[in-house]
Design a protein that fits this description.
This protein is an all-beta fold and about 270 residues long. It has a domain at about 185-268: Lipocalin (Beta Barrel). It contains no helices and 25 strands. The protein has a four-stranded antiparallel sheet, with no helix packed on it. Strands 7-8-9-10 form a four-stranded antiparallel sheet, with no helix packed on it. A hairpin with a 5-residue loop joins strand 7 (about 70-75) and strand 8 (about 80). The radius of gyration is 18 Å and the shape is globular. The protein starts with 6 loop residues before the first strand and ends in a 6-residue tail after the last strand.
């Protein structure tokens, strides 16, 4: 896990420190793991770091601006990441540049991370309100326009459909070639990235205003066709992304300082 003290930490199962790796800047990026155990993460020192499983540096790549978003590793080992300056990079496993592409103003710090399909399509959101689809050569295949910034990371299902929310309050599902399948207008902003269940369920959180100073969060559940199944309300915004346990339990954190474990079918 990364820290604002500029270090990446590895801990043992009993909570003792295994090693610490120091960078030159604060770390907002979550680490991404490759199949060979290499750990990739960005830092405010404008570098992507590749770290061995023993905590030693393998290589770094100098970017033009800080890297707060979490990298993604493709099936062939290609490492994809976005910078805070709005450029997407693809590197080979040894740190060599495969391609880079500017997609807009800025990729939201620590949230908008790339999603990659098995055939190398890359999807990523931008603060200019678009979700971009790029092919494995780094060419832009489509731009899906929303009303406001796309802060959340996209999620992919087995067919390559892309699920994401926007600051315009709508949740979108598009095909891998950019066609809209369905959308749903919520009552607030969406920073939460979606979790997809094995049964086709779609789960994400929202942040809504209530009254003059009130703030509530809502966990929304949909079926695969875009039908709202239920919502669960919390006492402040949900900006974290839900996780689904093996038994179907949905776990989500809220800005009300609580972690919730939710079974199927609550109603609020």
């Amino acid at each position: 896990m990364g820290s604002r003290d500029k270090r990446l930490y590895a801990v043992n199962n009993d909570g003792t420190l295994r090693w610490a790796y120091e960078t030159g800047g604060k770390i907002f990026s979550s680490p991404a793991l490759a199949s060979d155990g290499t750990i990739y993460m960005g830092s405010d020192d404008n570098k992507l770091h590749a770290v061995g499983k023993d905590g030693g540096a393998k290589w770094t790549y100098d970017a033009p601006s800080p890297i707060s978003a979490t990298p993604a590793v493709g099936p062939d080992g290609t490492v994809y990441f976005g910078t805070n300056g709005g450029v997407v990079f693809a590197l080979d496993p040894n740190g060599g540049l495969r391609w880079s592409k500017r997609i807009g103003r800025a990729i939201y710090a620590s949230y908008s991370s790339p999603a990659v399909t098995s055939d190398g399509m890359v999807f990523i959101g931008s603060e200019n309100g678009r979700l971009y689809g790029l092919n494995k050569e780094g060419n832009i295949v489509f731009r899906a326009q929303t009303g406001k910034a796309v802060h959340a990371s996209p999620a992919l299902d087995a067919d390559g459909n892309v699920y994401f929310g926007s600051y315009d309050g709508s949740f979108y599902v598009i095909t891998k070639d950019g066609r809209l399948k369905w959308s749903y207008k919520t009552g607030g902003i969406i920073e939460s990235s979606a979790a997809l269940g094995a049964d086709g369920g779609v789960y994400f959180g929202t942040g809504e205003l209530r009254g003059v100073d009130g703030r509530v969060g809502r966990l929304c559940a949909f079926d695969s066709n875009g039908t709202l199944l239920w919502t669960f309300e919390t006492e402040d915004w949900i900006e974290s992304s839900p996780a689904i346990g093996s038994d179907g339990t949905i776990y989500v954190g809220s800005n009300d300082h609580s972690l919730y474990a939710i079974g199927s079918g609550p109603s609020n």
